[in-house]
Target: Bifunctional thiamine biosynthesis protein ThiDN
Amino acid sequence: MVILAVGGYDPTGGAGISADIKTSHTLGVYCLSIITSIIPQTNKEVYEKYDLSKENIENQFKSVFEEFEIEYVKTGVLTSQSIDILLKYIDKYDLKVICDPVLASTTKYNFVDEKLMDKYIELFNKSYLITPNREEYNKIMEFVKNKNYHLKKDLYILITGIDDILKRNSTTINIFKGFKINKEVHGTGCVYSTAITAFLSKGYKLEDAIKEAKNFILSSIIYAKKTKYGYNSNPTYINKETVIKNLSYAIYLLKKINFTLIPEVGSNIAESLPLPKDFNDIASLTGRIIKNKLGGFYVVGDIEFGASEHIAKIILSASKFNPKIRSCMNIKYDEDLIKTLKEKFKDKFIISSFDRSEEPPNVSTMEWGTTIACKKIGKVPDIIYDKGGLGKEPMIRVLGKDSIDVIKKVEFIQKIYNSIKEK
Ligand SMILES: Nc1ncnc2c1ncn2[C@@H]1O[C@H](COP(=O)(O)OP(=O)(O)OP(=O)(O)O)[C@@H](O)[C@H]1O
Ligand SMILES: Cc1ncc(COP(=O)(O)O)c(N)n1
Model:
């Protein structure tokens, strides 16, 4: 698949063409790119906007259309010259345009004046989808009303916010629920509209493309790149295939470890999609990791979503504190091991615990215990343990950003355990 991104260049890579290319590449779609303006900026301010000449933009268009078959075009920051050229190419090649109308930067630098707004309206009426944020949508509708313009009946409009509203002209046809992450991330609009374009180029229907792009942008925000003045979007795609591959490799690694910290009830390891809503967003073994009679272990069952409740509840609770924590594994409790980890490896492992005797009635122990352990230290620990209770085996739970991270922690913990027991 190939898409074309037409937009401005942001040297910090948070927005514009750089973000478009990273997004498209992450989704396995080849991204052609035409630069309209060079816009040096930080997350505090835009320094300037240098518009490339009509001739140069014309040659950029000429080169990509000579070399490639193009169906989908995503637009970011546009200029009058680039819109004039694009309008000609839309007619000539029957292009499907996804227009992200970037009227101003988040740092309040205006990219558009009234003359250019006229051109944007012309472009909207030749586009398939436009993706204004709420503020941009209101400005566009006010402009259309004041100038007595009209938007074509079959124009799809996705008004982005935390929840995103999909309209077909003025009729709302779907709402895509979001989840506010406490970060102001630069370039989310660019990444989101390019992800939608990439999924459309893969053959997704519009609403499926938006749904999948929504998951994509949320991951790209969770894993945003911290900068001096803020955060830059970091195009990241974690889907069911990613999770299954991680878990398969984690179990492959486990089999290379002389893993003996297996509790009587057996171990399980689970990993979730970003921002899991329920068990179905979390994959684990349908069976268990159980001791065999030769001092080793068996891995019983397959990797399936929805297979675990116990470990899944730990991840569901932990991810509310830190959406980057997506995996957990339970291993055998040992008092000397916890003591040694607390005393000698506090720089490597953050440890917390809960006491089953303090459990209130009518709660899920794992949800309650995980929440207590996280609240105690104000973050998600690497290890959560409890000393058991009536008919309940003491347990250590290892948490991490994915199942491979968890297995590497388990491997280290196993080595510490072995060294203690050898003494
Ligand atoms: N902090 C956040 N938490 C959750 N979702 C967010 C956050 N910021 C942006 N998004 C999502 O990213 C998508 C696009 O973001 P937004 O609505 O901010 O567009 P935008 O203002 O054009 O972005 P930008 O101008 O920063 O490139 C929307 O679906 C929105 O829900
Ligand atoms: C080149 C370029 N393209 C798009 C944006 C909008 O991004 P934001 O709204 O995060 O400022 C930008 N600032 N720079």
Summary: The first helix runs from residue 16 to 26. The chain has twelve helices and 21 strands. The two ends are 60 Å apart (CA to CA). Residues 7-10, 15-16, 39, 41, 76-77, 102, 105-107, 186-187, 189-190 surround MP5 (ligand 2) (CB under 6 Å).
